Amino acid sequence: MKTKYIKNILLISLVFLVVLLLVRKIPNTIEIVMVTKGYNFVQVERDETFEISFFISTKNSNFSNQNNIKSIAITDEINYLKFKLEDIILSEEKVYLKNKWYYNVLFSLKPLIEVTNNFTLEMIDAYLEIAFKNDSYAKLSIGSFSYYLFQENSQNLSITKLKGLVNTFNNNKRLVGVLIGIKNNTNKQIKITNIYPLDLNIKVAYKDIIKCNDFIQGETIKEILGYDYNLFEIEENVKLNLCVDDEIRIFIPLKYIKDIVINKMGFLIEYELDKETFYYCLDDFLFFESNDYLVNLKWLKFYTYEDS
Amino acid sequence: MKRLSIICLLFLFFYSFSIKAYTQTGHEIFSKINFQDEGKLLINMTTSEIEEGYKYLNTPKFLGWKHYYFNIKEEATYVGEVIFARSNKTNEPITIKYSYKDTNSLERSVTYSASLSGKFKKNIKGIDTEINGKIDNTVKKVTSRETVEVTDFTITIQPNKKVVFRETGECLVTNGVSKYYFLWLTLNKGSWEYIDIVTRYYELYEEDN
């Protein structure tokens, strides 16, 4: 009688265990690949969005379902910038990285920030922090992040040409300089005193700025300047004094504070008119697109996430 | 006579649908292609040059495709389409915002002669495999990728000016001729060409209206 009783208990326990195992959702391990680069976002209109893309090994997961995401932020050790997730774009085609196939996911984000004046936030070592509704979260390295909010722009200047010079450096395409056409819309002389690249990793080499009407993509910066150019040697205490009566086209060589890939960037032009200082903000412009960074594992960070 | 007119009209109707938009390159998305070294697009080849290619495929096969390549992943630069152009015909500056979304779905542009059916597009994958065996891995790695890029850009257009946003870039051109054999008989043949975009460059310029 006692043996039968124990047998029944064991049988019920076994059935219960089997049912529990069947009902319980087995967590699915997802591999995530982040492309670390110099991300920057210039917001001159409040409805502009910031896009960040990464790769996931499974098409259907918490990362690709907007309803499963509670909040998104870009953070470092000190700063925290919260975003509203506007959209998720999942690519149908797969990408082969380090012996595995991945899907490309793009998050379209809008900063949740209430400020009335101009605002700057720069993070040299930034992370994309995603909190899911199931209380799990992912903290993924993205490289650096620079955010600039400019809410007024003067009409004294306008842009007539914008083109980036891309050279290959360490087997990767790099934006090494930018050709900008600047038009003076006033009948007085404008003096440009500073050109600030809107990415924390980039500086403008003022002493190497030259007048240049155009260049052919494929030319090297050495061919354009006529001498060897070091991408990482930062110059100090060089002042810019560029007079614009009507229109000028200048080639501005860029310097990198650290070795990083940047393909999109804006500029802030500081100028004097009637001894008064003004600013013109050039929105972030996509200068080039290349997938060659996917070949170089140096820029990729691999993560795993238990999707449940 | 009436019947003849109807036939003529019908002919014109169907003929008009078979006319393809003329492009200098044979590919709608490229207005100009320049090879870095030697290379020729199909559109620039003479009939005899193409016929020369078929001569290499004259040994019959029991079953399947045979390909001859004029160019294999030949490096070139291209001038692409105008992505965006906007005029300001008013007397006041206007500020516009454009949003550009590129899923790189046009990363590969394919064209083939009419004698090859639309199904031949699937055979391009077979050609890829064959080609990848012929060339080193570095080229293989940069093709057939899809990523998504979206960008917003705000710009002010001055009165009586036009702003143009244009794409140029680097690409790899592969072209050739193919024959399909069944029981040593040629069932289908034709020329084809595909172009892989490697890098896209974007430029913005202002011009007079």
Written overview of the protein:
The complex is a heterodimer of chains A (308) and B (209). Chain A has 308 residues and is mainly beta. In chain A, strand 16 (264-273) and strand 17 form a beta hairpin. Chain A has helices spanning 2-23, 221-225; strands at residues 28-35, 37-43, 50-56, 69-75, 80-97, 100-111, 119-132, 137-149, 157-169, 172-184, 190-197, 202-204, 210-211, 242-244, 247-256, 264-273, 276-286, 288-290, 300-307. Chain A starts with a helix and ends with a strand. Chain A folds into two domains: 28-151 and 293-307, Immunoglobulin-like; 157-286, Sandwich (Immunoglobulin-like), CATH 2.60.40. In chain A, the strands form three sheets. A nine-stranded mixed beta sheet of chain A has the order 2-8-7-4-5-6-3-1-19, with no helix packed on it. In chain A, strands 9, 10, 12, 13 and 15 form a five-stranded antiparallel beta sheet that branches. A four-stranded antiparallel beta sheet of chain A has the order 14-11-16-17, with no helix packed on it. By secondary structure, chain B is an alpha+beta fold. Chain B has one domain (2-208). Chain B is built from four helices and seven strands; from the N terminus they run αβαβββααβββ. In chain B, the strands form two sheets. Chain B has a five-stranded antiparallel beta sheet. The longest helix of chain B has 17 residues, at 2-18. Chain B starts with a helix and ends with a strand. Residues 8-20 and 136-145 of chain B have low confidence and may be disordered. Classes of the chains: A mainly beta (308), B alpha+beta (209). The interface between A and B is large, with 45 and 36 residues. Strand 9 of chain A pairs antiparallel with strand 7 of chain B, so a sheet runs across the interface.
